[in-house]
Amino acid sequence: MNEIEQTLTLKNVRPTAMRILIYKYMAEKKSALALTDIENAFEKAERTTLYRTLKTFEENGIVHQIDDGTHVSKFALCEPGCNCEIDQDLHLHFHCSQCDTTICLTEHKIPHINLPKGYIAEDVNLVIKGVCENCSTH
């Protein structure tokens, strides 16, 4: 069993051929991807299959969804050991206004915020917008 198959199996996701291909594609890209990015890479695959794969990955802590302010949901692979808990695994994201790329800045954690009594956090998202290293050097 290869590394991707082991990762999926450990997250209780059956490692089908399509799931392995999508995981591998996302790992190679190193940036957050929209469903349309994945559709373009797998033109012959059914859109619903791709969407269901992303949702299965999200539900099982393999990817997390990012709202980068573009009104298009993006997905990025979780780091090993991540469980996508609001209290533990929050990190910054960077969205480049020139190339429209969104990346996870996993080494920069968002500190836990104590909300007032009666408030319940359901999602936390911190996106820094600007020009990425690649665009700023051209």
UniProtKB/TrEMBL annotation:
InterPro entries: FUR (IPR002481), WH-like_DNA-bd_sf (IPR036388), WH_DNA-bd_sf (IPR036390). It comes from the Bacteria. SUPFAM superfamilies: Winged helix' DNA-binding domain. It holds the Pfam family FUR. Gene3D superfamilies: Winged helix-like DNA-binding domain superfamily/Winged helix DNA-binding domain (1.10.10.10). PANTHER family: HYDROGEN PEROXIDE SENSITIVE REPRESSOR, ZINC UPTAKE REGULATION PROTEIN. This is Transcriptional repressor. It comes from Maribacter confluentis.
